[in-house]
Design goal:
Largest interface: A-B, 30 and 40 residues
Structural class of chain A: mainly alpha
Keywords (chain A): Cell membrane, Membrane, Transmembrane, Transmembrane helix
CATH superfamily of the largest domain in chain B: P-loop containing nucleotide triphosphate hydrolases
Number of domains of chain B: 2
Radius of gyration of chain B: 19 Å
Oligomer: heterodimer
Strand content of chain A: under 5%
GO molecular function, one term (chain A): branched-chain amino acid transmembrane transporter activity
Number of helices of chain A: 15
CATH architecture of the largest domain in chain B: 3-Layer(aba) Sandwich
CATH architecture of one domain in chain A: Orthogonal Bundle
Strand order of the largest sheet of chain B: 8-9-10-5-11-12
CATH class of one domain in chain A: Mainly Alpha
Subcellular location (chain A): Cell membrane
Number of strands of chain B: 12
Largest sheet of chain B: 6 strands, mixed
Helix content of chain B: 25-40%
Number of strands of chain A: 4
Shape of chain A: globular
Helix content of chain A: over 70%
Pfam family, one (chain A): BPD_transp_2
Protein name (chain A): Branched-chain amino acid ABC transporter permease
Distance between the termini of chain B: 28 Å
CATH topology of the largest domain in chain B: Rossmann fold
Distance between the termini of chain A: 15 Å
Largest sheet of chain A: 2 strands, antiparallel
CATH class of the largest domain in chain B: Alpha Beta
Order of helices and strands of chain B: EEEEEHEEHEHHHHEHEHEEHH
Number of helices of chain B: 10
Order of helices and strands of chain A: HHHHHHEEEHHHHEHHHHH
C-alpha cells in the first residue's frame, strides 16, 4: 500500500529523472546505506568479512565494470581475470616501489593502468563483434596471465613467483597485511564500492550511457544519429577496465594478501564475473550487486547446509557444491534470462498495483 | 518544369522554398560489378519536401545511404551548403545536421522511448566525462535542458503516454513514430525518411503524412523521403526524383512526373532492352 507513485508528483525534469523515483525505494536505499556504514562495521567479525562481505564488495566492483562493457555497451569480454591481474600487479609494483604512497592513490592508479591496458585490448572491438570479440578478449586473458608469470620483474624476482601485499596503513590503521582489522578492510572496500557504483549510475543515465546502449542495441542506427563508435566503445572499455582493475587490486591487497596469478586471476575468474552479471542482470547496476551476492552467498550457503546441516564429508560437499551451482546457473538462464534485476523489476511493478492485478 | 531561380521558388500553396542546400553531382555507386546508381544528379532545396521514387531495386535507398555517409560513391560529388563534402563517416554527417529514419525500424529496443529520443539530442550535449561521472554542473543542466526539447517533440508527435515504455514493447506504427521523433529531436536541417509509411494502415499513413507536413511547416525542416505509396508522394512532395535501374528517369513537380512518358513506362512496365 505504501509502494505507490500516486500522489508523488514530479514537478521538475530533474526530479523525474532521479535514480529512485518512488519514495519507498529511496528510504530503503538510505536504510541499506545506514546499515552498511552505521551498523555492520561494529558487528563484523573475521568470518563474515572474509567469507561474505569482502568478496561480495570486491566482486561487485568487477561486476559493475563488466556490466558497463557487456551489459551496457554490448561488448562481450572474457578477459576480466586478466584485467584484474593488471590491477593487482600494478598495485603490487606501486606498493613496493613507493612505500609512502597511500592505498587510495595506489588503488586508483591501478585502475587507471588497467584502463590503459583495457583500451589496448579493446581496439579489436572496432572491427569484430560478438563471439569473435570474446575470443580476442580471451587472448588478453591468457596473454596477461602468461606475462605476469613469465616476466620476473612483475613479482620483484621473488623465488615463489607469488606477490605479497606489504602492510600499509591509513589514518594509523592497517588496511593491508596480516594485522589489518576486518572492519577497516570492510570500510575501505565499502568506500570504493559506494563511490564507484554512484559514478557508474551517473555515467549510465547520461549522454555517455545512452551512447553505450545505442551501440549495444543497434550500432548502425547509433552511428547515424551521431554516436562515434570508436569513442563510445573505447570509453566503455576504459571505464570497465578501470573498475575491473580496482577490483583486482582490492582482491589482492585487501582480501587475499598473497597471490599466485594463474590461480587467483585465471580464466575461472573471468567466467565467475560473467556469471555474476548474467545472473544478476545485464545492463543494470543493481544486477551487478545481486549477481555478486548470489555467486558469493550460494557456495557459502550450500557448504553450511551440506556439511553442518546434513553432516556430509567436506570434500564431497565441496564437489557437490559445483554441481548445484552449475545446475542453478543453467536453470536460471532458462527461466529468467534477464536475471535477478528483471525479477526485482517485475516484483516492483506488481507491488505498485497491488492488490489489483492490472 | 518551372524555371528555378537560384534563390528558390514559391509552391502552389504559397510556401517559400529557398536555395539549394544539398546537391548530388553525377553520383555513380558500384558494388563490385553491380551498378546501383548510375550518374545521377539532383538537388534538394531549403524547406522543400523532396521525394525519391522508383520501382524496387531502383537504387533509392542506396541514394539515401550515399547522402547519410554509409556508402561512398566511386564517382561524383556531394555538395552541402555550397561546399563539396569530403568522404565522411555517418556520425560526422549526423553532426552536420542530417538526420534520418530507416526502412526497417532501427530503434534501440532495450531503451525507453524517452531514452531513444534523448539519444537523438546527442549532438547538442557536450558535458565533459568528469561532469557526467559526478552528475555535476553542466551534465545536470544539459540533461534538463535537452529533456525539455525532447518533451516538445514528444508532445508534437503525441506519444506522451508511452514515454517511459521500452521501445521493444511498442506496436509497429508507434515505433515508426518514435523513430521520427528521434530524428526530429536532433533539429536537423535535412531529414531523410526511408519509407516512413511502409507497412502502415490508412489511418497510420494519414497520421504520418500530417506529421511530415507539420514538421516541414512548423520547423521549416527540409525533407527528403522515399515512399512507395504514389498517392502519398504526389500529395506531400514539392518535387520528385524518379529512379529506375539506378538511373534518373524523371525530375520535377508531381504533375510533371506523372505525365512523364519514361516514368509511366517504368511503373506500368515496358520491356527494358
Amino acid at each position: 500500500m505504501f509502494y505507490r507513485e500516486a500522489g508523488d508528483f514530479k514537478t521538475t525534469y530533474a526530479k523525474d529523472n532521479q535514480t529512485f523515483p518512488i519514495a519507498f525505494d529511496r528510504y530503503r536505499y538510505y536504510f541499506v546505506l545506514f546499515m552498511a556504514i552505521g551498523i555492520v562495521p561494529f558487528v563484523i567479525n573475521d568470518y563474515w568479512a572474509n567469507a561474505i562481505l569482502l568478496p561480495f564488495l570486491i566482486y561487485a566492483i568487477a561486476a559493475i565494470g563488466l556490466n558497463i562493457l557487456t551489459g551496457y555497451c554490448g561488448q562481450v569480454s572474457l578477459g576480466t581475470g586478466g584485467f584484474m591481474a593488471v590491477g593487482a600487479y600494478t598495485s603490487y609494483k606501486l606498493m613496493t616501489a613507493f612505500p609512502g604512497l597511500d592505498m587510495v592513490t595506489i588503488t586508483l592508479l591501478s585502475g587507471f593502468m588497467t584502463a590503459i591496458v583495457g583500451v589496448m585490448f579493446g581496439l579489436p572491438s572496432l572491427r569484430i563483434k560478438g563471439f569473435y570479440l570474446a575470443v580476442a578478449t580471451l587472448a588478453a586473458q591468457f596473454f596477461l596471465v602468461w606475462l605476469f608469470n613469465k616476466v620476473p620483474w612483475f613479482y620483484n624476482y621473488s623465488a615463489s613467483g607469488q606477490i605479497n601485499a606489504p602492510e600499509r596503513t591509513m589514518f594509523g590503521m592497517a588496511v593491508t597485511g596480516p594485522n589489518a582489522e576486518s572492519w577497516v578492510k570492510y570500510l575501505f572496500c565499502l568506500a570504493f564500492v559506494f563511490v564507484l557504483a554512484w559514478i557508474a549510475r551517473n555515467l549510465t543515465r547520461g549522454s555517455i550511457g545512452r551512447q553505450w546502449m545505442a551501440i549495444r542495441d543497434m550500432d548502425i542506427a547509433a552511428e547515424i544519429i551521431g554516436v562515434n563508435p570508436l569513442k563510445a566503445k573505447l570509453t566503455a572499455f576504459a571505464v570497465s577496465s578501470f573498475y575491473v582493475g580496482i577490483s583486482g587490486a582490492l582482491l589482492f591487497t585487501v582480501y587475499l594478501g598473497a597471490v599466485e596469478v594463474g590461480e587467483a586471476y585465471g580464466i575461472t575468474k573471468s567466467f565467475l564475473v560473467l556469471f555474476m552479471i548474467i545472473i544478476g542482470g545485464l545492463g543494470s547496476i543493481f544486477g551487478a550487486f545481486a549477481g555478486a551476492a548470489f555467486m558469493v552467498l550460494l557456495p557459502v550457503l550450500l557448504r553450511n547446509i551440506l556439511t553442518d546441516g546434513m553432516g556430509w564429508d567436506t570434500a564431497l560437499a565441496t564437489h557437490f557444491e559445483f554441481v548445484i551451482v552449475g545446475a542453478m546457473i543453467m536453470i536460471f538462464l532458462i527461466v529468467e534470462p534477464h536475471g535477478l534485476a528483471r525479477l526485482w523489476a517485475l516484483a516492483k511493478e506488481k507491488l505498485r498495483l497491488w492488490p489489483f492485478p492490472h | 518544369m518551372n524555371e528555378m531561380s537560384p534563390d528558390g521558388y514559391t509552391t502552389e500553396d504559397g510556401r517559400k522554398i529557398g536555395g539549394v542546400v544539398m546537391e548530388m553531382r553525377n553520383i555513380t555507386l558500384r558494388f563490385g560489378g553491380v551498378v546501383a546508381i548510375k550518374d545521377i544528379s539532383f538537388d534538394i532545396r531549403e524547406g522543400e519536401i523532396r521525394a525519391i521514387i522508383g520501382p524496387n531495386g531502383a537504387g533509392k535507398s542506396s541514394m539515401l545511404n550515399v547522402i547519410s555517409g554509409f556508402y561512398h560513391p566511386q564517382e561524383g560529388e556531394v555538395w552541402y551548403r555550397g561546399a563539396r563534402r569530403p568522404a565522411m563517416k555517418p556520425f560526422q554527417v549526423a553532426r552536420q545536421g542530417i538526420a534520418r529514419t530507416f526502412q526497417n525500424i532501427a530503434l534501440f529496443d532495450g531503451m525507453t522511448v524517452l531514452d531513444n529520443i534523448m539519444t537523438g539530442r546527442l549532438n547538442h550535449m557536450s558535458a565533459s566525462f568528469i561532469d557526467q561521472a559526478l552528475w555535476w554542473g553542466k551534465a545536470q543542466r544539459e540533461e534538463v535542458k535537452n529533456r525539455r526539447v525532447a518533451e516538445e517533440v514528444i508532445d508534437f508527435l503525441e506519444i506522451q503516454n508511452i514515454r517511459k515504455t521500452p521501445v521493444g514493447r511498442l506496436p509497429y506504427g508507434l515505433k515508426k513514430r518514435v523513430e521520427l521523433a528521434r530524428a526530429l529531436v536532433a533539429e536537423p536541417s535535412i531529414l531523410l525518411l526511408d519509407e516512413p509509411m511502409a507497412g502502415m494502415n490508412v489511418e497510420e499513413k494519414e497520421d504520418m503524412s500530417r506529421f511530415i507536413l507539420d514538421v516541414n511547416d512548423e520547423f521549416g525542416t527540409t525533407i527528403a523521403l522515399i515512399e512507395h505509396d504514389m498517392g502519398v508522394v504526389m500529395d506531400l512532395s514539392d518535387r520528385v526524383v524518379v529512379m529506375d535501374y539506378g538511373k534518373k528517369i524523371g525530375d520535377g513537380t508531381p504533375d510533371e512526373v506523372r505525365n512523364n512518358p519514361d516514368v509511366i513506362d517504368a511503373y506500368l512496365g515496358v520491356a527494358h532492352d
